[in-house]
């Protein structure tokens, strides 16, 4: 390991030490939510398309179309929303699982009072709280590691997860998703001086870091088994949170990182010694994840997203992501939703 390079990288990282300390502070107290029943279909707005099926019918799901496995939007309350609104006093908040160390997505800004949580995902969570509870600040954030996103929903520790979570068929068997709110794809991040050129044979004999439970690890593992990725590529470096991969890269403990391009671009902005290598090699969509049978909440979030895409999404993109992903957000905008109807 080149220690001079590691020291230079850590200087480039700047506030990582302070952020790492803050990242150990997790919010406590879990609240169990009741399982909910389905609500009737709501009429579609003009221009929206509907597919036939149900939220739970994912046996014929393909990942390329997984983002279409969601229910039509509705502003009606139901059992899940009623339970949220029934909370009293200081507990009358929407409980949202988020990241707190993904730069410009969900991170604690050490330059603000109390190291406030900020980012693109955080803006969306505030917007959903505003719609359901009438107050954008009526939200309790819980820091959830990548691998704990689904268990946190299933156990009732959170009402939803808004945490750069890709919609996949496997995950749809465990939780429900909203319509997509962001489009991205897997990409390689490595030091500028690295011989790695992208997602190709240059990863042979390289140690690649991914977050445990991420779509990145699942893709690399499958491609190494199928022969698309060199069999000598070392995938043993998995970490609880994506930021840990960048730290390990800076310390010279791994050769490359694979993660969503949107996250990789934010990490490259934090450290000028690393860069994206090659183009994105998958197409993925972020969605808000909720409990499997919380149909009323899924529909409500989808209604919020209809309005948010029209007014709010662009402002949040300009604030948090335009500096790293470019002024034109066209490549990041999700397609028009195609909603399922309950049978």
Question: Would you write up a description of this structure?
Answer:
The protein is an alpha/beta fold and 343 residues long. It is 31% helix and 19% strand. The protein contains 12 helices and 17 strands. The strands form 5 sheets. It has a 5-stranded mixed sheet with strand order 6-2-7-16-8. It has a 5-stranded mixed sheet with strand order 12-11-13-10-14, sandwiched between helices. Strands 3-4-5 form a 3-stranded antiparallel sheet. Helix 7 (215-226) links the parallel strand 11 (207-211) and strand 12 (234-239). The termini are far apart.
SS field, number of helical segments: 12
Low-confidence stretches: 1-56
The coarse overall form would be globular
Main structural class: alpha/beta
Task: Characterize the largest beta sheet: strand count, sense, and whether it forms a barrel.
Answer: 5 strands, mixed
Number of strands: 17
Percent of residues in helices: 25-40%
Strand order of the largest sheet: 6-2-7-16-8
Write down the secondary-structure element order. HHEHEEEEHEHEHEEEEHEHEHEEEHHHE
- Quaternary structure: single chain
Q: Please, what is the average pLDDT?
A: 86
Rg computed from alpha carbons, rounded to a whole number of angstroms: 20 Å
Strand content: 15-25%
State the end-to-end distance: 59 Å
Defining key terms:
5-stranded mixed β-sheet; 343 residues; globular; alpha/beta; disordered N terminus
Short description:
With 343 residues, the chain is α/β, with parallel strands linked by helices.
Please outline the helices and strands.
Layout lengths: L2 H11 L2 H7 L26 E4 L26 H7 L8 E5 L2 E2 L3 E3 L8 E2 L1 H14 L5 E5 L5 H6 L5 E2 L7 H4 L2 E3 L4 E3 L1 E6 L15 E5 L3 H12 L7 E6 L2 H9 L5 E5 H10 L3 E4 L6 E3 L2 E3 L3 H16 L2 H8 L1 H4 L12 E4 L2
Parallel strand pairs: 1-17, 2-6, 2-7, 11-12, 11-13
Antiparallel strand pairs: 3-4, 4-5, 7-16, 8-16, 9-15, 10-13, 10-14
Helix pairs in contact: 4-10
């Amino acid at each position: 390991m080149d220690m001079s390079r590691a020291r230079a990288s850590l200087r480039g990282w700047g506030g990582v030490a302070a952020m790492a300390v803050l990242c150990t502070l997790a919010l406590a107290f879990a609240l169990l939510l009741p399982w909910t029943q389905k609500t009737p279909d709501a009429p579609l707005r003009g221009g929206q398309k509907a597919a036939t099926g149900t939220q739970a019918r994912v046996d014929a799901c393909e990942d390329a179309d997984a983002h279409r496995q969601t229910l039509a939007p509705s502003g009606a309350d139901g059992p899940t929303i009623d339970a949220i609104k029934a909370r009293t006093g200081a507990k009358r908040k929407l409980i949202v699982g988020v990241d707190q160390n993904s730069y410009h997505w969900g991170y604690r800004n050490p330059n603000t009072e109390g190291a406030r949580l900020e980012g693109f995902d955080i803006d969306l969570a505030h917007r959903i709280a505003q719609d359901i509870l009438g107050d954008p600040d009526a939200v309790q954030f819980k820091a959830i590691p990548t691998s704990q996103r689904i268990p946190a929903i299933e156990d009732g520790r959170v009402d939803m997860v808004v945490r750069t979570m890709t919609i996949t068929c496997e995950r749809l068997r465990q939780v429900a998703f909203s319509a997509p709110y962001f489009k991205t794809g897997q990409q390689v991040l490595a030091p500028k001086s690295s011989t790695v050129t992208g997602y190709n044979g240059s990863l042979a004999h390289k140690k690649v870091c991914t977050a445990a439970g991420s779509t990145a690890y699942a893709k690399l593992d499958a491609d190494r088994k199928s022969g698309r990725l060199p069999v000598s590529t070392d995938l043993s470096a998995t970490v609880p949170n994506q930021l840990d991969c960048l730290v390990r890269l800076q310390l010279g403990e791994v050769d490359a990182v694979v993660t969503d391009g949107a996250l990789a671009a934010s990490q490259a902005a934090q450290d000028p010694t690393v860069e994206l290598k090659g183009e994105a090699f998958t197409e993925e969509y972020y969605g808000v994840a909720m409990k499997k049978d919380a149909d009323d909440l899924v529909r409500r979030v989808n209604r919020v997203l209809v309005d948010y895409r029209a007014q709010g999404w662009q402002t949040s993109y300009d604030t948090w992501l335009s500096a790293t992903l470019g002024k034109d957000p066209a490549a990041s905008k999700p397609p028009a939703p195609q909603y399922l109807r309950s049978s």
